[in-house]
Each structure stands twice: as structure tokens, then as C-alpha cells.
Amino acid sequence: APSTAYNAIDRWIKLGYIETPQKIIREHTTYIWLSCKGIKELELPYAYYLPKVSTIRHLYAVNAIRLHMQSFNISAEWISQRTIRLQSEHRPLPDAYMEVDTIPPTAIQITEQQRLANIALQEEITSIQALAKQYTRIWYFSHKNVTEILHTAVKEIDTKSSKDEKLVDHI
Description:
The chain is an alpha+beta fold. The chain contains 6 helices and 4 strands, in the order αααβαββαβα.
């Protein structure tokens, strides 16, 4: 219930576990973030992090995908980018990966952009190529306006690649 959530937030603010909630994006709900004290209290291995306004839309997209996937009751563990950063020196990092007992980890990559300029498209393709060297499967989520552009670019790269380097086999 909303009142229960608001009571919990009020309690966490008074205890200093979260930063003061902020309304950052007009069409989204208010955001809350763990404070340094909250991270220490929960004994999390992460450094304190207050997201920049420029990254909020991406974090929202990542959380939306995670919540959507959880709605299917998939028996998998979601490993966040912050956790991957602690475990691996490989770069680039996916936004997350999922672990399921019977299959290798699946990288999760998300772009929330509605338009991709040529330079952004090249960055996305370079990222996919690098992730394909680390993961046998990549689930790539994109805005419907750029899905076809990305798919066409991946197919074009694949026509120039050897059979063992096909990106379509990964995503």
C-alpha cells in the first residue's frame, strides 16, 4: 500500500539510510538512493554513488527491464553492473547479466535512446562486439525507434565476419 511505502521512506530518511527523495524526471516517480550510512548498514560492498541527472533515464530503463523480466518468474539471478564491476576487470561491462543454472551467463544490454546518431551507433556496435567476446548470449533491449537500425548494422557486420564471429548468434 502507498501509505506503507511512504512510512518506510520517512523512517529511512530519519535514520539517515537514504538521501532526500528527488523528482528528477517529470514523467517518472520520485527517486530514492541509499546514503553512505545506508550502504554501511546493509554491509554492501559498493562505494557511495549518487547518479548524475544524465544517467537517470538509463537507470530507469535498466530497472524497468529487470522488473519486467521478474514478472515472468524466471528462475535466474540478476547480477547488476555494480556487482560485475567488483568481480571483473573486463570492459565494457554489460548493464547486467543473468545467471541460470543450466545456461552460461546472459549479458543484458540496454539503450533507452530513441535516436542513434552515427557515432552513438558505432559505440553500440563496438560494445556489442566486445561483449560477444565475453558472453555467449546477449539480450539487447532498445527503443523501438532504433531496433531496426541496430539490427541492420549487426547484420552488415556479420556479412563481413567469419562464421565464428557472427554477432547475430549472440544477440
